[in-house]
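Worked problem 6 (solution included).
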Amino acid sequence: MVSGSFTLIDLRPEALRQAEPLEALTLQLVLAVSLEAIEAGTHGLTPAHGPLLVVCERGVRSGLAAEYLRADGLDARAHPGGVPALRAQQD
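Solution. The predicted structure is:
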């Protein structure tokens, strides 16, 4: 189980979020935010959300999203390996 004090940002499309909710892999708050909203700066995230851990399906888009969020002044990092890496941490 992923733990710590952060907000998990789920970049995956709605169908993938519904098929495998990340809430089952973490005790933290999970927010669904699209990469497009992050790129456009319309994501609505603030420092009040605390540190952000960005996750996508395979770990590629999360790095880009974390860079955009850091450029917006937020404490953000990507979770390497995406959802499969989160699953592996459960074992």
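Discussion: The first strand starts at residue 7 and ends at 10.
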